[in-house]
C-alpha cells in the first residue's frame, strides 16, 4: 500500500529530476486556471525568508448564492520558483481529482457589518 510519505518522496524525487518550468510558464498556467494568484513573502522569528503561493478561484455558493473563494493550491518554499512549481503541480493534481484545498474562504458579505455613526449598514431598519 502506498502511504502519504511514499507519495511525497516520489514527488520530491521526480521534481528534482525534472527541474522547474520557467517562471513565466508557471504563472501563465496558474493564471489561466484560477482567478487569483497570491505570492506572499514572510519571515518568522529566527527563520529564513519563505514564499507562499496561493491559487484561488472565485465562485458562488449554490445554496446561499453568496460569492466566495475556493483555494486550489497552497505551497511554500524558500525559493519563489520552487514554491510556484509546487503550486502548479498541486493545482494540476487537484483539478484531476476534483478536490480543492478549501471551500468558502473568507467571511461572507452578509456577516460583515459596516458601522457609520453608530448605525449598521446592513441593518434592515437603517435608513
Provide the descriptors you would attach to this structure in a database record.
3 helices; 127 residues; two-stranded antiparallel sheet; 29% strand; alpha+beta; 4-stranded antiparallel β-sheet
Shape by Cα distribution? globular
Label the structural class: alpha+beta
Summed over residues and divided by their number, the pLDDT gives a mean of 79
Give the assembly state of these chains.
single chain
Strand order of the largest sheet: 1-2-3-4
Beta-strand residue fraction? 25-35%
Please bin the fraction of helical residues: 25-40%
Number of strands: 6
Secondary-structure element string:
HHEEEHEEE
Continuous helix count: 3
Task: State the end-to-end distance.
Answer: 64 Å
For the CA atoms, what is the radius of gyration? Answer: 19 Å
Taking the sheet with the most strands, its summary is: 4 strands, antiparallel
Number of structural units classed as domains: 1
Sequence stretches where pLDDT stays below 50 over 5 or more residues? none
Strand and helix map with partners:
Layout lengths: L3 H15 L4 H11 L2 E7 L7 E11 L6 E11 L2 H18 L4 E4 L9 E2 L2 E2 L7
Antiparallel strand pairs: 1-2, 2-3, 3-4, 5-6
Helix pairs in contact: 2-3
How does this structure look, described?
The structure is a single chain. This protein has one domain (4-120). The strands form 2 sheets. A 4-stranded antiparallel sheet has the order 1-2-3-4. Strands 5-6 form a two-stranded antiparallel ribbon. The relative contact order is 0.14. It has 127 residues and is α+β, with helices and mostly antiparallel strands. Helix 2 (23-33) packs parallel to helix 3. 35% of the residues lie in helices and 29% in strands.
Amino acid at each position: 500500500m502506498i502511504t502519504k510519505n511514499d507519495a511525497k518522496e516520489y514527488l520530491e524525487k521526480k521534481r528534482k529530476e525534472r527541474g522547474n518550468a520557467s517562471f513565466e510558464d508557471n504563472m501563465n498556467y496558474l493564471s489561466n486556471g484560477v482567478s487569483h494568484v497570491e505570492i506572499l513573502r514572510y519571515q518568522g522569528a529566527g527563520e529564513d525568508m519563505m514564499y507562499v503561493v496561493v491559487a484561488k478561484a472565485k465562485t458562488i455558493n449554490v445554496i446561499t448564492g453568496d460569492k466566495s473563494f475556493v483555494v486550489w493550491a497552497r505551497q511554500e518554499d524558500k525559493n519563489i520558483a520552487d514554491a510556484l512549481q509546487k503550486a502548479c503541480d498541486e493545482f494540476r493534481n487537484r483539478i484531476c481529482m476534483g478536490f480543492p484545498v478549501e471551500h468558502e474562504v473568507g467571511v461572507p458579505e452578509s456577516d460583515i457589518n459596516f458601522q457609520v455613526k453608530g448605525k449598521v449598514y446592513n441593518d434592515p431598519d437603517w435608513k
